[in-house]
Structures are given as structure tokens and as C-alpha cells.
Amino acid sequence: MKKNNKRKAYSYGIIIIGVISLFMLGLFIIRRINSKDLELNENIIITSNAFVDGGIIPVKYTGKGENVSPDMKLSDVTPEAKSIAIIMDDLDFPLGIYNHWVMWNLPVQDYIPEGIPCGPIVNSMQNAVQGKGYGVNRYKGPNPPFGTHRYQYKVYVLDTLIDLDSDSNKKELLEQMDGHVLQYGKITGKFK
To answer: Distances in Å between the alpha carbon of 13 and those of 9, 89, 115, 186?
Structure first.
């Protein structure tokens, strides 16, 4: 009887160690995907009607509300621009920066409207592509598990179109954009 209990305890121990190992591997992968970023100086100003830089993001634009992307106004977009890309990250995720939204090949414009439709290809934005941020092809608004988190919307004005499919993520987009960024700006909001 004692031998069976020891075997069961040993088996449970092995299972627990395996689950913890897989969990830690998943966390490592998340950190690797989201840790790298381009080193850029801001040279374009991003504003929004939804919130001011450093201010509170209204519930409408979060996972607790309608989960729609906020509008963004871009100052002085260069005439050399060929496309625009957006990356939105949670800067205060407990395990490091966590990507919520990634989109590229937006048409050149100085105003990005709110409520970008869900899906990998956005027909209303001249077939712009939404990659995998938060595991889905759509804007995934702030929804922190606890406390107040900062969410940063980064806008990249590019001298090219990006050749990536919609299964691509932030890391792959950053690699493709490297050397092609003409202008860069960001706006940060908070949500509790």
C-alpha cells in the first residue's frame, strides 16, 4: 500500500514539474517575442480624441467596454511615406511588455479613425494587415488583471509596404520595419 502511495506521489510530482516547466517556457517565449523594439527618436506627434498622452483611456476603448481602437492624429506626415504601422503594448504586464495589437500597410494618412474592424485584412483601410497581437488578428484593448497599467500606441511611418502574412507578430514586424522607418511617434494611456 505504501509503495502505491509513493508511486502516485512520484507520478504527481513529475506531472507538476512538467506543467511548471511548460509554463516557464511559455513565459520565456512571451518575453522574447515582446522584448525587442526599434531604437528610434520621436519625430512625429501622435494625439487622440479618446485620451490625452499620459491620461486615462476611456472604458469604451478597453476590454471592459466596446473594445474598439482609439482614433489617432499624426502631425506632419512626410510625403515620402509609403505606409503606416501600429504597435500597441501593455508596458506594465508582470512578465514584461505584452503586445495587444499589431497592424501594418495602413494607407498614408494623417488621421487613423477609431474602431478598426476585426480580422486579418482590413478592406476599409486599403487591405491593411492585422497580425497576431494577444493571439488574435484585431485590436485587443486594455484589460489589466490588477492595478493600473500603461498602454502605449506606437505609430511608424514607413518608406515601404511590409511583406508579411497575417500570422506574423510584433517581433517579425519589427524585423521587417528595421531601416524603413521615416517617422515615429507614440501616445500612452492608462487603464485600471
So the answer is: 6, 36, 48, 47
How far is residue 121's CA from residue 164's CA, in Å, rounded to a whole number? Answer: 12
**Alpha carbons 35 and 56: distance in angstroms, whole number:** 25
Cα gap 175→168, rounded to integer Å = 11
Which residues lie below 8 Å from residue 61, measured CB to CB, with a gap of 6+? Answer: 50, 51, 67, 68, 69, 70, 114, 141, 142
Which of 3.90.280.10, 3.40.1790.10, 3.90.1150.10, 3.40.50.80 would CATH assign to domain 39-191?
3.90.280.10
Task: Enter the C-alpha cell of residue 98.
Answer: 505584452
- Grid cell listed for 161: 509596404
pLDDT per residue over 23-36, tens digit each? 555 545 544 444 45
Domain range annotation of the chain? 1-35, 39-191
pLDDT in tens, 44-67: 999 999 999 999 999 999 999 999
CA distances from 157 to 108, 133, 186 (A): 8, 19, 12
Give me the residue label for grid cell 512578465: 95
